[in-house]
Amino acid sequence: MRTWIFGACLSALVVGGGLKAAYADETCNSPFTAALIKGQEEYLHVWTLGMKGVGDESDKLVTIDVVPGSPTYGKVVDTLSVGGRGEAHHMGFTDDRRFLWAGRLDDNKIFIFDIQDPAKPKLHKTITDLAEKTGFVGPHTFYAMPGRVLVQALSNSKDHTGRTGVIVYSNQGELVSTYDMPTASMGGDGYGYDIGVNPNQNVMLTSSFTGWTNYMMDLGTLVKDAGAMKNFGNTMAVWDVKSMKPIKVLSVPGAPLEIRWSLKPGADWALTATALTSKIWLVRKDDKGEWQAKDVATVGDPAKIPLPVDISIAADGKHLWVNTFMDGSARLFDISNVEAPKEVYSKKIGNQVNMVSQSWDGKRVYFTTSLLANWDKKGEENDQFLKSYDWDGKELTERFKIDFIAEKLGRAHHMKFSARPNSKAIGSTMDVYRSLQN
Amino acid sequence: MKIRISALAIAILWTATSFAEPREPAATASPERKATEFAVPLGLPPMPPRFATVQPAKVELGRKLFFDRRLSFNNTLSCAMCHLEEDAFASTQSKKSIGMEGRTLRRNAPSVLNVVYQRSLFHDGRENRIDLQVWMPLLAEDEMANPSMGYVLDRIGELDDYDAQFNRVYPAEGISVHSVGDAIAAYEATLLSANSRFDRWHFGGEKGLLTKAEVAGFQIFTGKGGCSTCHRIEQESALFTDHRFHNTGIGYRAAMGSGRIHVIPLAPGVTTSMSDSQIDAFGESPRNDVGRFEVTLKESDRWAYKTPSLRNVSRTKPYMHDGSIATLEDVVDFYSSGAAARHATDGILTRLDLSVDEKAELVAFLRTLDGEQRSRP
After folding, report:
1. At B339, is the pLDDT very low, low, confident or very high (cuts 50, 70, 90)?
2. Which residues pair with A63 in a beta bridge?
3. Between the CA atoms of B376, A129, B111 and B55, what dihedral angle is there, to the nearest 10 degrees?
């Protein structure tokens, strides 16, 4: 562990300097991600679930040209099918941004794509023994650490409940170590979902979702099953990231999902949204220096289970996009007073919407539709698309849409930006650090 | 038609040959093939003759197959992922089992404990031998989803840790349709559970072991409640089943009933409610289930399901063939209130009108049926 802890300190310095809004990378990446995109992102990679009756019915990495004015702007420029449907879900870069890791929640395969040529990703390696080697299943979040990738699992191979853990791999895909999620002795429920690291605070936050049985189950069947509905996480855990030890469990009832640390210089707080109870929660230290969580806003009408899913924080820490899956809406919250976020804008994106990615300057916002294969709506309600919007501070204006069913691709899920290595869009982490000092 | 009949006849002949009893060599001297007596715990009948002795090596092989997720098409599911050892070999996480790629199965996973005594298998009794039953989930598209028997045998053969084990236990046949089923059946036959507090009290003569309430519950079970009419207790043993199929009204209600309102837990102490139609707007259409009728096509078998054993019943929630009742208390309420009698068609069930105390006593008795669990010889 020593190597990446040292690297963490270096990166903490970089992040501690604070990143200004001149950089166009996504705001949700690990702070240890190098080669930040300084300008316009060039490609958007969409980790896409295979869908029965659509194309080759297999999961695939779909690459889209997103440079305005390009002859192929808004078009699919590459697809890389990996075979079978294994519940493709999330992706994450290695710290050097050379490789893009993408996981499948059902069969637990992890695909490592080489994106040196981002217009044509290549499959570099497939990890197939996650369950066998670790006992954990459902690789969800891929989070860059120096020379390492943290993988937050959702479940386990013994009983498919939510008891799970965090796995540490080397950038080369070799298993390094595993850590159990905190359980009853600490007030935890053993569940996991997302990872968010704040190097300045030496803190890793984790959130909690549910096990294989629930996330693979049809959503309608699930909500009719009161017993199964009790098998969701109600906690977040605060970890000492250097020692990888949980130090406190916070009560955050109703399945807290994505974790977004504020990127505003000097900020020491993070937000999450609870999918089932439809709340935004703030995690920060109290006056005594103790980490606490409190709900600070309601999203939609919780009685209707709007299902707030992905959230995206603006780089200046003043706004938060919150997608509500059930009504297909993107909602913008003003979080300039993070103790009392207020919804200031909303727009219906489609019949359903899940993921949202915004550029670092907040001017471009991308949305996709798939939540989980068996949670997506059925029939005509099952929109599957990528939509690109411009955001001018007042209104989302659609730039292009790719219909993933018409294009025979499948269910559009997680997005990541990239640019060519020699592109002017790319800057090294140290470049960013130096520019912030000037 | 003639061609089809001939083909069917050939298929039957082939099946009969393929699934025939193992052609065991006369001598069984090697330690791997040595058979040992298998004593049954208090409260269970003698083992069926075929399983009266066990070969530990065969059981170990069957156990490995039972727990091996590599036997499913995408390496995700095994027998043990729906029949969980810590859940008395049932599944307590959801009403209905979740299969390949998350497909919702139609029924709740029954416990495999004491399965060796079952005269028919599955809730609708469509199979009658456990070594044959094994192949149905292996091949069902919504369960382990293997495309064919040959595919399964090839896959096992390709794994480097099975060949030697099969050759030791089945030297004459190695990995085959028969040996795979036979080994898993041998393991399942060792999954016995009894010697419960009830057994020690009722069959073991340990007077005073049950509380007053539990004894009162037993009297309701065998008397006013009429439970033992189907959940039978014999002179020297009890499997708590009559091996028959009954329409309790549960299946009828699911197939023929109108929309319900569901109370949905969102977090501890937080609930909301939605109607069937609201939920069905985003969920899948529930699959119909007509029970034993699907096997026999007899009108009287519509929505009839096999009487389950009640051993370890407190550990195998949720209840009924579709897991639609969450707790033992709710099951007792269901029968007591006459809800069953309204839709049941076989005439056995009547309104019981049990008092609050009687219901509590009956539940207390049911909890005495939790037995010792033995899974290895």
Report:
1. confident
2. A45, A78
3. -30
Q: Which two tokens stand for residue B342?
A: 């309204």
φ and ψ of B84, to 5 deg? -85, 130
Of B92, B104, B268, Cβ closest to residue A218? B104
> For chain B, where do the domains classified as CATH 1.10.760.10 start and end?
2-193, 227-374
User: Does A277 contact chain B (CB < 8 Å)?
Assistant: yes
> What is the spatial distance between Cα A283 and Cα A195, in angstroms, rounded to a whole number?
13
Report chain A residues whose CB lies below 8 A from the CB of B281.
377, 381
Inter-CA distances, A202 with A196, A241, A268, A292, Å: 11, 6, 11, 16
Write down the ipTM of this complex.
0.88
Q: Are B355 and B332 in contact (CB under 8 A)?
A: no
Strands A356-358, A36-37: parallel, antiparallel or unpaired by DSSP? Answer: unpaired
The pLDDT value given to residue B14: 34
CB A242 within 8 A of CB A221: no
Rg of chain A (C-alpha set): 20
Q: Which residues of B touch A231 (CB under 8 A)?
A: 93
Which residue is closest to A326 within chain B, CA to CA? B282
Which residues in chain B touch residue A191, judged by CB atoms under 8 angstroms apart?
none
* Domains of chain A, start order: 2-432 (2.130.10.10)
A302 touches B: beta carbon within 8 Å: yes
Q: What is the pLDDT of residues A321-332, one digit of tens each?
A: 999 999 999 999
User: B377 preceded by cis ω (within 30°)?
Assistant: no
Identity of the amino acid at A215: Y
- pLDDT, average across residues A407-417: 97
Residues 6 or more apart from B154 whose CB is under 8 A from it?
none
Dump strand ranges (E) for A17-95.
36-37, 43-49, 60-65, 76-81, 88-93
Single-letter amino acid, residue A126? T
B160 contact A CB<8A: no
Q: Give the per-residue pLDDT at A433.
A: 39
Q: Among candidates A23, A9, A42, which has minimal Cα distance to A431?
A: A23
Q: Which CATH architecture has domain B227-374?
A: Orthogonal Bundle (1.10)
**CB-based contacts of B278, cutoff 8 Å, min separation 6:** none
Three-class SS state of A373: coil
Which among A411, A422, A418 has a CA at the least distance from the CA of A24? A418
Residue B106 one-letter amino acid:
R
Which residue of B64, B68, B75, B84 to mutate against A (max A Cβ within 10 Å)?
B75
- Of residues A87, A223, A253, nearest to B267 (C-beta): A253
Could you confirm whether domain B2-193 is CATH 3.40.630.30?
no
CB < 8 Å to B270, chain A: 253-254, 276-277
The residue of chain B nearest to residue A278, with distances taken between CA atoms, is: B266
Mean pLDDT of A213-233: 97
Q: What is the pLDDT of residues B32-82, one digit of tens each?
A: 666 676 679 999 999 999 998 889 999 999 999 999 999 999 999 999 999
- pTM, two decimal places: 0.90
